[in-house]
Amino acid sequence: MKYVVFIILIFSFNLISTNALSAEITSVKIYGNKRIDNNTIYFYTKHPLTGNITQANIDQIIKNLYSTHLFSKVEVSIENDTQLIIRLKENPVINNIYIKGNKEFNNKDLKDDVLQLKALSVFTKTKLRHDISQLYTLYQSKGKLGVKITYDITDKSNNSIDLTININEGITAKIKTIKFIGNKSFTDYQLKSLLTSKEVKFFKIFSSSTKYLIDRLMIDQANLYNFYATNGFINFKVRSIISEVSDDYSSVNIIFSLEEGNRYKFGTSTIFTDKNFIGNKDIKSHLQKLIQSQQGNVFNITKVNNSISAITSYLNNQGNLFSTAKSEHEIIEKDNIVNVKYIVYTGDHVYINNINIKNNTRTLDSVIRRQLSISEGDVYNSSTVKTSQQNVLNLGFFEDVNVETQKINDNSVDLNFNVKERGTGSFDIGAGFSSMTGLVGKINIKERNILGTGKTFAIKLERSITNFSGAADLITPYFLDSNISLGIGLFYSQQKNQANEQRVLPSDTSVFSSSSMGFSTRLSHNITNNIIGALQYSYKYNHIYDVSRYASILIREQKGKNIDSSIGYSLIYSSIDNMYQPKNGIFAKIEQSLSGIGGTLHYIKTEGSATYLHPILQKINNDIIFKIKSSLGYVFAYNNEGIKIGQRFFIGSNDIRGFSISGIGPRDKITHDALGGNFYFSLINQVDFPIGLPDNLGIKGSLFIDAATLFGIDSEMHNNYDSSKSLRIAIGFGFSWKSPFGPVRIDFGFPIKQEKFDIKYVPRFSPDTGI
C-alpha cells in the first residue's frame, strides 16, 4: 500500500511542477533587439504571447528563438503576473570575411562554395565551426595533411564584426610507398600500374601523380575493381585503404586491403525483352549477336557493359529512344560460373516532333538546317542525330553545338540544337622583312559566314619591293538550293628580277621577272557524309621575262608567255572530329588536273595526301595527339613538251621542317637556283602534347620527324644541275598557339640526312591547320 501512495505522490508533484507557472499575460516587453523589429520577433516565437502562458510555453518560445540563429542569448520571464519579458542578445553581423595564407584555392571560390558564413550575414559559432571543419576536409583532400586553421574576430560598430580566417597550408604530402594486402592473383607491380597515384621516385620528383589526394584514391579504388571484374573476379572488394602519415605530414604510406574472391567464367547469356519484342525473332536474334559475354570465357565486366551499350545504341537507332538495358548476374558457386541476364525495356518508337535552332543570333536557321540529316516526322535515330551535330560543328561557325532531347509524350520528342556562335571574320595586317624580298606587307581579309548565309569571301594581298600578289575568292554553298557548292576565284601575281646583274646572290633570290593572272571556278558536292567530290576549271596567263644572264640555263629556256587552261577533279575523305581543332580521324585528298584545254601547255598533274590523327596515352592525357601525314605528287607532259618551271613542284619548309622554302630538290650547280621537280614525296610524323601551361593560353608543344624527296626534270642537260632521289630527314620540336587571329605555330627543325646542295633554314613560322 505504501508503494501506491508513493507513486501517487510523485505523479502529483510532477503535475504541480508543470503547471506551477501559469499566468494570464496582457502585455509583452522585448529588450535588446537593435536590428530586428518586434513584429519579426513575434513571428519567430511561433506562439501566442498573450493569454494563458505556462512554463512549457516559455521553454518552447526560447527554443524557437534560438533556432533562428539570430540570437546568442534568449531569456523569457513573467513579471507582475501579467507581463511577458523577452530579453535578447543579437548575434553580430559580418561586415567582411578575410582569408589569409591560402594558395591552393581561389579565395572567391572558398567564400562562394565552401563557407556557410557570408559577408552581411549573421555570425554564429555553430556555422564557424562547420566552416572550419569543411576547410580542414578540403585541404586534407588535396594532400595538405598538416594544415592549420585559426580565426580572428574583430569587433566593429553597431554589433558587427570582421572575420579573418588564417590558413597555414603546410606542405603537400607525397606518397612514399603503396602496398597491397590480400592480392594473390596479381603482383604489386601489376596493380600499381593501374593506379593514378604513384610512389615518389627520382624520375617522378616533379610529377603531380605522387601527391596524396583523396579523390585520386577513389579513382584508384574504382580502377582496381574494374581490373579484377574484367579478369573474372566479380566479387572483388577493396576492404579498406589505410593511410599511414609521417609525423611531419610530409609523406604517406598507402595500404590497400583487398578481398579477391573466386574467379568465374561466363555461363549462359540470355536476353529478356518487353512486350514490344514478343514474336519479333529478327530483332532478338540481332540483339543476341551484340552480346560479347560468350559462354566458357573468363567473366569480364567490360564485355557485359559493352554489350549493354551496343544493345542500347542499336535500339536508339531503331527509334526506341527511351529504351534501356541492364544486366543481372546469377552466380553459380559450385561451377564458378556467372549466368548473365540482359533485361531490355524497349518502349515505343519515338518520332521527331519539332527541330528547334537556338542561340543563333547571326547565322540563318536555313544554313544550320541544311546540315541536318534528320527531318521533323522522322523516327528518332541517335546515330543520325550525332552525325547532324557533327555536320553543324564542322561548319566552323560555332564554338559548341549541344543537342537537347525534349520529351513531348511517350512517342515524340523535340530536338533543340543549342549553338554557341564564334567569330567567323578575320582581318590580318602585318609587315616583315625578308633577306630575299626586303620589306613585306600583308593584308588578309576573310569572312566565312557573310551576313549569316554561310558564304565565304576572302581577299589576300601581299606586297614587297619586288613582288606583288593578290587573290579574291567567293564560295557559295548549296548553290541555287542544290547540294552543290560554287567557288569562284581571281588572282594576280608579279615577281621582279632581283639579280641586278650581280653574280653573287642568295640561293633563293629570283633571277627572272614573271607575272601571272587568271581565274578559277569550282563545283563541289558531298557524295556521302565523309566524301566530297569537286570539278574545277582554271585559266592562267603566265609571262616569264627579264631573265638574268647569270641565271641557270634551265631557267633561261623558260622565258616567254604561255596559257595554262586546265580542268580537274578532286576527292576528299574526312572523318576528322573537328576541322579547326582536330584530335581524331582521317583526312585524305586526291586531285588531278589536265592542262591543254585551249591553252599552250600540255601536262597532267596528280597530287594526293593522307593525314591520320589519334589520341595516344589516353589514360594519362587525352590531349596527347599523334599525327602522321603522307603526301606525294607527279606531273608529266604530253605532246612532246617539257614541264615548265611554273608547273613543277617546289617543296621545303612546309613539308620538311629544317629546310628553306625551296630547300630540297634539283638545283643549278653554278647559280644554285632551285629548279623544282616533277615528283615529290613527304612524310610527317608528329606528336602534340600539353606543356603544363593553363589551357586558356592555348599553347601546346610538338615533337616531329619529317622526311621528303623531290626530283625529276624534263631536260637532257643533267650535268648542269644537282639532283638526288634520296630521302631527306629532319627532327625537331615546335609550339602551337591558338591566337586571337587563328592557330599559328613555330617549328625548329634540324636536318639529320641531307644533300650538299640542300639549303637549311631554322626556325619556321606558319599557320597551324591541324591537318
TrEMBL record:
Entry-linked InterPro entries: Bac_surfAg_D15 (IPR000184), BamA/TamA_POTRA (IPR010827), D15-like (IPR039910), OM_assembly_BamA (IPR023707), POTRA (IPR034746)
Domain of life: Bacteria
Statement: the UniProt record of this protein carries the keyword Calcium: no
GO process terms (BP): Gram-negative-bacterium-type cell outer membrane assembly; protein insertion into membrane
UniProt keywords, alphabetically: Cell outer membrane, Membrane, Repeat, Signal, Transmembrane, Transmembrane beta strand
Signal peptide: 1-22
Pfam family, one: POTRA
Entry's transmembrane regions: none
Keyword Repeat carried by entry: yes
Location in or out of the cell: Cell outer membrane; Membrane
Span of domain POTRA: 350-422
Any one GO cellular component localisation term in the record: cell outer membrane
Family of this protein: Belongs to the BamA family.
Complexes and interactors: Part of the Bam complex.
HAMAP family attached to this UniProt entry: OM_assembly_BamA
Function: Part of the outer membrane protein assembly complex, which is involved in assembly and insertion of beta-barrel proteins into the outer membrane.
Protein name as catalogued: Outer membrane protein assembly factor BamA
Gene label: yaeT
